[in-house]
Amino acid sequence: QVQLVESGGGLVMPGGSLRLSCAASISISIYFMGWYRQAPGKQRELVAVISSGGSTNYADSVKGRFTISRDNAGNTVYLQMNSLKPEDTAVYYCNAGGRNRYWGQGTQVTVSS
């Protein structure tokens, strides 16, 4: 049973920062890893993705504010989120191998004053 466990979510004020972590029960070295998010009433959307070689891609809405990184030895993926905005409020999900592969249970991020 593959498990992806997200942590690091919470309540933060606008302009603040959070760092999300995703710990995998499998070796992630061969997988594209990604972070997605889903706000109430909206579809799940891609936030950031990182290839096995370390290439990254970001949604336009988070470019320059969010950074995805990976630690293959530790089987962990991170999402550093800076300059958070209320519109970043959502449940954030970790993904391994694309939409049809492995998902975590999600962690809530709420940006509010």
Number of strands: 11
C-alpha-based Rg, rounded: 13 Å
Estimate the strand proportion.
over 45%
Output the structural class.
mainly beta
Mean pLDDT metric: 96
Note the total helix count.
0
| Low-confidence parts | none
- What percentage of residues falls in helices of 4 or more residues? under 10%
* Bulk shape: globular
Can you describe what's shown?
- This protein is mostly beta strands and 113 residues long.
- The chain has strands at 4-7, 10-12, 18-24, 33-38, 45-50, 56-58, 66-71, 76-81, 90-96, 102-103, 107-111.
- The strands form two sheets. Strands 2, 4, 5, 6, 9, 10 and 11 form a seven-stranded mixed β-sheet that branches. A four-stranded antiparallel β-sheet has the order 1-3-8-7, with no helix packed on it.
- It is globular, with a radius of gyration of 13 Å.
Descriptive terms for the model:
single chain, 113 residues, mainly beta
Can you summarize this structure?
This protein has strands at about 5, 10, 20-25, 35-40, 45-50, 55-60, 65-70, 75-80, 90-95, 100-105, 105-110. The protein contains no helices and eleven strands. Strands 2, 4, 5, 6, 9, 10 and 11 form a seven-stranded mixed beta sheet that branches.
